[in-house]
Specification:
This protein has helices at residues 6-30, 36-57, 69-90, 96-103, 106-116, 124-140, 151-176, 183-206, 215-242, 245-251, 254-266, 273-302. With 304 residues, the chain is mostly helical.
């Protein structure tokens, strides 16, 4: 597929940020009606069917080579399965606004873990950004922000943080992988593996779903599976081909801000001071780690 024009790529990227941000409020509503495993599985089925159509029409259906199998499994297991389950389960107890902020600490865990694994260098901007992000994490987890006597809320927060760490592990592996096919061409296979695994887990632990269907529930699933997952994954692959990684990395920091706003509008969740401060610290930390490190690399290359 041809790269998009800069204007079209930025427009599509804004749609992705909006879709992902709102999806946290949608997921929060879904898990009130459907168990987390079935919620993730049904959403994944909708995404699988949608992506089959999208990638088929764009001639991006390929048989993956053996060397791409590890990255297919990495994305399917760590991001599309484990991340999805932990977020869905965590949001049963945790407000969507706090969940999206905790969930988007992923770049901070990447900045801290990658150097320890020998996959990157811990530069001063990365360290400063990580410390800012961890300070934001401390703010959102302090006893005045969440009720430490409520086991469910603590469990929910822990699950979402583990989800962010799982996504970070996937990102670190993806960076080291030598791709044969493009990420877009492997996307359907990743969703296929995740859908099979999620469905198997849901049947094993929850049995056949006992769901009281309504037009509201159907619309929530369609949004989450079609827009929040399939369309967003496809659009992000197109965006990554058309604008720089730095722009997309910084731009995704807008997702938790959209998530907070959508939770306030759609769910009536309050935006308290600790949430605003935590979001500001984490977003600033991610931006500093990303932009500052990139500037240092550029200076190093310029100076030979």
């Amino acid at each position: 597929m041809k790269a998009l024009s800069p204007r079209a790529a930025v427009g599509l990227f804004l749609i992705v940020v909006l879709a992902w941000g709102v999806n946290w409020s949608v997921t929060k509503q879904l898990v009130q009606f459907v168990p987390p495993l079935w919620s993730a599985a049904i959403r994944s089925w909708i995404a699988l069917i949608s992506l089959t159509v999208i990638l088929g029409l764009s001639n991006n259906l390929v048989i993956p080579e053996r060397r791409d199998v590890p990255v297919i499994l990495s994305v399917a297991l760590l991001h599309m399965t484990l991340f999805s389950i932990l977020v869905a389960a965590g949001l049963r107890f945790l407000p969507a606004s706090k969940g999206v902020v905790l969930g988007y600490t992923t770049p901070l865990w990447v900045a801290l873990a990658a150097p320890m694994l020998g996959k990157d260098t811990l530069t001063a901007p990365k360290l400063a950004g990580a410390l800012l992000g961890l300070a934001g994490l401390a703010v959102i987890l302090n006893p005045s922000s969440i009720d430490w006597t409520n086991t469910g809320i603590l469990l929910g927060a822990g699950m979402v943080i583990l989800a962010a760490i799982s996504w970070a592990a996937n990102i670190i592996y993806m960076r080291a992988h030598r791709w044969i096919a493009s990420p877009l061409q492997l996307l359907l296979w990743q969703v296929l593996v995740a859908t099979a695994l999620l469905s198997t887990l849901a049947m094993t632990f929850d049995g056949l779903p006992q769901i009281e269907w309504s037009w509201r529930l159907v619309s929530l699933f369609l949004y989450s599976g079609l827009i929040g997952t399939a369309l967003a994954y496809w659009a992000m692959s197109m965006v990554n081909k058309s604008i720089s990684a730095l722009t997309t990395s910084l731009g995704t920091t807008g997702t938790p801000l959209v998530g907070i706003a959508s939770a306030a509008i759609l769910l009536g969740e309050p935006i308290d001071m600790s949430l605003a401060i935590a979001a500001g610290l984490i977003v600033t930390g991610i931006g500093l780690a990303t932009l500052g490190d990139r500037l240092l690399r550029g200076q190093a290359i310029a100076s030979g």
